[in-house]
Design brief:
301 residues; alpha+beta; oxygen-dependent coproporphyrinogen oxidase
Amino acid sequence: MIKELEHTFKNIQSQIRKEFENLETSKNSEISYDSWKREEGGGGKTFIIANGRLFDNCAVNFSSIYGNQLPDSALPSSLKKTIKNGYHAMGISVISHPKNPNIPSSHMNVRLFAILDKKGEIDNWWIGGGYDLTPYIPFEKDIVNWHKEAKASLEPFSSSFYKQFSENCNEYFFIPHRNERRGVGGIFFDNLSDLSLENSLKMLESVASSYINSYMSILNKRKSIKFSKEDKEFQLIRRGRYAEFNLIYDRGTAFGLKSNGRIESILASLPSHVKWSYKKNQKYIDLEKKLLRVINRDWNV
């Protein structure tokens, strides 16, 4: 069963990797695809594009790890004392930081946690994941379509999931010390075991497929829009918010570090080019006012 589950996640990684790789046309881009092993058990594959024509950097990570005890941050409170025979956790994490500030950064992950019995078979399990969008120069039509596609991906599994998960996303991707949302939301869910294991995997596949279809549509529509040095400067400073959230609040980052994950893969979610600036010019102030009006409102459909 574990091998079958891993195969599902590897297929998701392969599909997204191919879409990104086909879109990055620069022969000078730095493309890496590494396999790695974890000392405590398991490993993964990490795909990276850096310094491309389209992407400043992006990452598509697969991991499948196992051991005796999960970090508390990964466990529902009702299960924190139930792991006696080990666990197995696997998933896909995707992050994209395009070069053009007219294209948003995006994030997606789908994951499965399993508690094992004495025979090493799955005794208990739950899933989590979702995706969200972080624009810099926003296009409202893209945001509305992003949410419509997210809703459509969940409808076959429950008519109540989208409302619940989109609200979760708005609450989760919030930066308290800035009093700002990270972006315009999407969907986010965790500790979910409402469906059968088979249907849970189908839902994760649907979420991943919806993400890449929606994001590829945005990439193709916005990649040729010209931008100024001021636009790029604005993007680089606003990316600082992304770095702040991932390093301070993100549960996935905390889980990876606490479970002795591969540091290079965990921190691949950070933008390769980012700035913090004390003094802001008027162009930045105007762009930020417009952006904050967009990201600090609900886009749920």
